[in-house]
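One chain given next:
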Amino acid sequence: MKTSLGDLRESNAFLNLLLDNINSAVLIADEKLQIYQFNNFFLELFDQSDKTVAEQSFGNVTGCVNTVTENRPCGKTSVCMTCILRRSIIKTMTEKIPVDHVRLERIFYINGMPTEKYLEFSTRHIDFQGRRMILVIIYDITDIEKQKIELEEKQALLDLDLKAAAGIQKSLLPESSPSIPNIHVAWKFEPCERIGGDIFNIHFPDEKHIGFYMLDVCGHGVSAALIAVAVSQFLQNVRILADDAGIVPPENVLNSINRAFPFERFDSYFTIIYMTIDLFDGSLAYSCAGHPPPVLLRNDRTIEVLDQHGPIIGLSRGKPFGQARMRLQQGDRVVLYTDGILETCNPSEKRYGKNRFYKILKTHKGETAPALANAIYNSVKNFGKGKKPEDDISILVIEYTG
């Protein structure tokens, strides 16, 4: 099939129309970056008139920062030899090797004003008007890159805020080695994100008793951490823990929490356990709201699961909480934990589970509180084999030495 001269002219007209309506700058230049052909988008990109572009150098037409600040022509500045665009054109010209999507970040003086541009360019070797030339296609990615930079800056600020929030949350955890008469305490805590929905701490409602709580807010991240901190602050109110009649029973503490944190107000729910221990006679009382049951390791090496429980805070619909009592003996240990322990998965998506948890407790039930807390934590981490935990991990071991 023969192509007529009219068909050729029509195809050239179509090609010119196409080049003038694409969102990329297209130009034809020689090895010295002298421009011989260009499309409309190139003019728009650098706000130039077609009368000032033809047979001018790229640096002079675009207002390259190097040509402007040094007041020297393109190709003669102190940095032209290292210019990535010039080097790519020379490589394509001499070796006929195309270059694709090379990044170019530079200041261009457009209408006398320095303007930062983020560009990508590709080059191709062509024959134009009987000469070896280079076809250069320039993609303007300035808006995309500036949006990316803005998002990165916002993310950096958010990371700083999260780091500060994590510090606040950590400050609400007990001291590493609190000095308490007749009590040794050890704990391990690891949020699955920068901050988490687990929190626990120690209170002294009066001179004779010590109180412990551990809670786990549904979900994790900022929203869960805010609720956890709010509950922690609520429990700082001494009137919640003790009144004129003496120490407030754990069941009453949970009833107060349940009234203060309805689901309708916070759009969330959480589990919590609160217990008190008489520092001198070892009397223990606790109340549980849907939280994993604590484990009591007796000094005689027997194990008891403290399974008194009530509904989850926020989902109880006003149902009152109960409590249980018992007496600790010298050397007894109580282990509080969150379900992040049991739900830890390994790379095969197998859960750690209760059986492994109780087994590690039996294996290390005669050890000190710090040794037992470390044994539990290390067992869970070794089981996970480096897999990122999907929930917060909290362990609190209380040893009664009175």
Notes: The CA atoms of residues 67 and 73 lie 6 Å apart. The longest helix spans residues 142-171. The chain has a mean pLDDT of 87. The chain has twelve helices and 17 strands.
